[in-house]
Amino acid sequence: MATTWLSWPVIKQITGADKLARGHAARSEWTEELSARTTTADSVAKSVCPYCAVGCGQKVFVKDDEVIQIEGDPDSPVSRGRLCPKGSASKNLVTSPLRQSTVRYRPAYATEWQDLELGTAMEMIADRVLKTRRDTWQDLDDQGRKLRRTMGIASLGGATLDNEENYLIKKLFTAMGAIQIENQARI
Description:
Elements: H1 9-15, H2 29-33, E1 43-48, E2 57-63, E3 66-72, H3 85-88, H4 91-95, E4 103-105, E5 114-116, H5 118-136, E6 137-140, E7 146-157, H6 163-175, E8 178-183
Parallel strand pairs: 7-8
Antiparallel strand pairs: 1-2, 2-3, 4-5, 6-7
């Protein structure tokens, strides 16, 4: 659309019904042609904010298999469509080019990080857990009472996990003999 001097906001304000320029007079042709990113989405997925234990509902808008917007879910009884600043910026958690997508490892006394294959990292973790459990296992106390525990392993869980995940983590660490099991949501 060609812009003429008659379409300038100040002219529309003076000559039109919107004398205070709070409506149509303040809108340019460019503004009229804008549309929200959410209107062009192919699909919308309901989700939960990953940052804290509150569990605010989110709507994730997807277009061409890419996340284009994340907003609060008005149907959520927890947040009723509202998100805190971190929750509002959670699109960057998924789409930021700065997002770490590889396993990084810094060996003891090293000054640089190195990339590891996921399988290699998982094996290293499993080996260290088993060694720590074996080295710190306490079967009996000084008076011969059964302990069956390890003081060398502890767990601090994140509040972004749901009840089922926290339940399974608690069961896993208890089965390994750990007694220091805590969750951020309780602290």
